[in-house]
Amino acid sequence: MKKALLVVLILCVLVSSLTMAKTLKIWIGGQVAELDQTWDDIISKYEKESGNEVEVQLFGFDVYYDKLLAALEAGFGPDLAFADLGGWVPTFAAKDWLVNLDSQIENWDGTDQIWPNLWPTVAYEGSLYGLPWYTDCRLLLYNKTMLKDAGFDNPPETWEEFCYVADKITDSSKRTYGYGVSGTKSEVTTLGYMMFLYAAGGELLTEDYSEPAFNTPEGLRALKFYTDLAKKWEVSPNALSYGEDDYRNMMAQGRVAMSVGGPWSFALIEQANPAIKGNYSVALHPYGAVPASVLGGWALVIPKSSENPEEAWGLAEYLTSYDTWMTWIEANGSPMPVRMDVCADAPTFDDEKWQVIFDTFPFAVCRPPIPVYPQVSEEIQMMVQNVLMDKMTPEEAIAVADTNVREILGK
Fold this sequence. Notes:
Layout: H1 2-20, E1 23-29, H2 36-50, E2 53-59, H3 61-74, E3 80-84, H4 88-94, H5 102-106, E4 123-124, E5 127-128, E6 131-137, E7 139-143, H6 144-149, H7 159-169, E8 177-179, H8 187-199, H9 217-231, H10 244-252, E9 256-261, H11 265-272, E10 280-283, E11 295-301, H12 309-319, H13 322-332, E12 336-337, H14 340-345, H15 352-360, H16 373-388, H17 394-408
Parallel strand pairs: 1-2, 1-3, 8-9
Antiparallel strand pairs: 3-11, 4-5, 6-11, 6-12, 7-9, 7-10
Helix pairs in contact: 8-9, 8-16, 10-11, 16-17
């Protein structure tokens, strides 16, 4: 009788544990999606500790927004998803697609360790709808060997130096180029233009995000200079075909000397070519008027369509914990954690590249955290492409973009 009761008890425990175990779906987008081995290791550890199973889907930067948007619109998104800090969170929150995380974040023991300037990127109408996961600031990523072989010991600082260095390195007959201009129909093109816009002393929108602010002499100067690098000086491969990720891989193979990059680039460029370790670095991106950088990164969000919102938050906490981030940095050396304690404690960050990042990050600007930002970004992309394809002059393209953005903003 006792044995029978024991068997029944064991069966009840097994059934209970099976019932409690959940299968979570997480969608991971952006550059870190390429680090699949690290994701396998971290997710496996979570599964062992939690008893839950996790189905992971990895998406490249160029396709992820459309995939996630379609899923959220249809009401069958994952349990947990990456969302770009460039306006995605308020955009999705405004459509009532995301779980409000105010109470979870208020009661989380890691809240005080998140860089303070990141919270506005995941806010909408005074509430928080995302948990920042990693951050960055855009810089000049460069191949030390290519610069040295061309006679340069240091990267350029001003636009004038920039043109000279890029031109001297470029030899299209050998398929080597000085700089990579992003001109694809994607967010990296907006980010590329913004780097030059702010470096010219301009701004994308007004301080209250109510009107466009880029149709100015500074904005026009930035557009001309950015597109002239590809069209006039021809120091870039085909800008309409390539973006940041492509140029980073070309740099790893000694074909592109400079491009926009940042802390996410380190593990990926070494993954593309382990021999480049020690032969690349970052610097403040060359500027025309003032030093500038654009803040970026990704947050974790829970779609309202999730069947397991509590477990999804538990996974978000796990991925953003001190221990998980220390494990991640030990394995990859990047990207930049949203946690200030990890940035302070991880030995990796004593490297000179990270000192450049930490010096630049405080004045990096964020993309407008407004629901219509994706539409604004699309207009900037088309503006750049219209010039690159010779459909419009820079003056015409910036005027059209200004008119369209005003309409988007309701002006």
